[in-house]
Amino acid sequence: MYEGMVGGASVERRVVAQGGGSKEKDNSEERAEAFDAEAGDLSERLAVGLSKLGAAIRHGARRDAFASGLSATQAEIVALLWRHDGLGTLVSVARELGIGLPTVSEAVGALVRKGLVTKGRSGKDARALSLRLTAKGKSAASKLASWPDHLIAALDALREDQKLALLDIVTTLIRRLQEQGAIPVARMCLTCVYFRPNAHPDPERPHHCAFVDAPFGDRLIRLDCPDHVPVS
User: What angle do CA 59, 102, 99 make, to 5 degrees?
Assistant: First the structure.
């Protein structure tokens, strides 16, 4: 009789325990579902991450600009003229940076007064002003045009396959944003008249650049090429 009672109580405890486990499982699933809902859409989370990276890059650029006695816009113009010597006119600089012509004109005026930029008539169009860096401007640009050390260090920490995957993602995003008119046309291979994708059987160098008449691989895809000619 006693043993039977013990056995019955044991069975009852097992049933209760099993029931409690089931409830805990249900609660865990509910918490997981609630967490998934609070996390939000994956594209939105990626957008948040990209905005944080952008903020870090802008912060570093502003810090370097202020250290050189320039505004962020002035520093961007100096760096742009350094990377693309002879880019040239106020209109082309405004288009390249995606900012208004009055803002560019004001910033360039300040750069001229600081002795970093000279303005002259363009050889191609006498009506347009050609912008050039002075020796002083080139000295400042060599520092401003380099990417922040902490960004390069973070990228260097990635594996080679991760870098290639990131390059593919970045070029795809830039092209999509360009197609939407959200950003200025970037000087990258994918939007260039000289780019011939998958023109060769060699998997290491499948693409072809008609400008230099040479094959190249994904790892050499450029995002800011001085010889870029946009596809019309």
Answer: 40
Helices (H), the chain: 2-39, 42-67, 72-83, 90-97, 101-113, 135-144, 149-156, 160-179
Backbone φ and ψ for 19, nearest 5 degrees, come out as -65, -40
**Residue of 197, 194, 198, 199 whose CA lies nearest to 230:** 194
Angle at which helices 72-83 and 90-97 cross, to 10°? 110
* pLDDT per position as a tens digit, 183-194: 877 789 988 999
* 8 Å CB contact between 133 and 117: yes
pLDDT, tens digit, 9 for 90 and up, residues 192-224:
999 999 999 999 999 999 999 999 999 899 988
Q: Which residues contact 211 (CB under 8 A, 6 or more apart)?
A: 192, 194, 227
Q: Which of 131, 116, 132, 133 is nearest to 70 (CA)?
A: 116
Paired tokens of 230: 């946009």
Distance CA 75, CA 64 (A): 8
At 7, list the tokens: 């056995």
Query: Residue 206 class from Cβ within 10 Å (0-12 exposed, 13-18 middle, 19+ buried)?
Result: middle
